[in-house]
Design brief:
The chain has one domain (about 10-214): Methane Monooxygenase Hydroxylase, Chain G, domain 1. Helix 2 runs parallel beside helix 4 (about 80-105) and helix 2 runs antiparallel to helix 5 (about 110-135). It is mostly helical. The chain is built from seven helices and no strands. The longest helix is centred in the C-terminal third of the chain and has 36 residues, at about 140-175. It has helices spanning about 1-10, 15-35, 40-70, 80-105, 110-135, 140-175, 180-214. The radius of gyration is 19 Å and the shape is elongated.
């Protein structure tokens, strides 16, 4: 009886559209961050675009939170909706932290491993954007969603390895007079790794939603 009554109530069908818009912001932020890692003038030139992507993502997050509050019937659990948009937003928030560190440390040269970390972030962002629309048909898309989440998990493991190799090589190449550069580069390595970790968190959130609704 309750289920029948809920089907008669008005539904908010825009959550998936908002998720998709947020994912686009994440992809844009990842692309602009990767462009910063090309070095030279690119770091400062692309920095404002990373901040703009994060601002746009925050705006979508607020839309989702407001929609949850005013909608009686949501496509899946309210906590899951807020959890997912929160984990998605964490990815671009962490990108902003990387971009700010690069500018604050006045970095203009980046080791190959740092750029590889940026590549990993871009791949994760694309996979997240692929996964989000599939939630609209969660039952039929469960296998594909899980495959995408597993791909993100694999990239996260690869990024951990790149981080470790990069930090080791950075240490080996550094001389006493390079101490400040070492500290700055090490910080950026760690922040980039955390971006990939946030994508893994988002993938886990998505997998949890699939488990609950399939």
């Amino acid at each position: 009886m309750v289920a029948w009554f809920r089907r008669l109530l008005p539904r908010e069908e825009h959550f998936f559209e908002m998720f998709a818009r947020h994912a686009d912001c994440v992809v844009l932020g990842a692309a602009e961050l990767r462009a910063m890692l090309e070095g030279g003038e690119a770091a400062r030139r692309h920095y404002p675009a990373v901040l703009a992507a994060e601002d746009a993502a925050d705006a979508v997050t607020r839309e989702v939170v407001q929609a949850v509050r005013r909608t009686f019937v949501t496509p899946f659990d309210r906590g899951d909706i807020q959890g997912l948009i929160g984990r998605m937003d964490d990815t671009v928030d962490q990108m902003k932290k990387v971009a700010k560190a690069i500018i604050q440390f006045e970095m203009a040269e980046f080791d190959p491993e740092l750029r590889q970390m940026g590549d990993a972030i871009q791949r994760c962002a694309g996979l997240l954007r692929d996964a989000v629309p599939l939630l609209a048909g969660i039952s039929g898309n469960a296998s594909r969603i899980n495959e995408i989440c597993e791909q993100i998990r694999v990239i996260e493991g690869q990024a951990d390895d790149i981080h470790d190799i990069g930090v080791t090589e950075l240490f080996r190449r550094s001389k006493p007079e390079d101490a400040l550069r070492f500290i700055a580069a090490r910080e950026v390595f760690d922040l980039l790794e955390k971006v990939v970790d946030r994508f893994d968190d988002a993938a886990e959130e998505i997998e949890g939603i699939v488990v609950e609704h399939v």
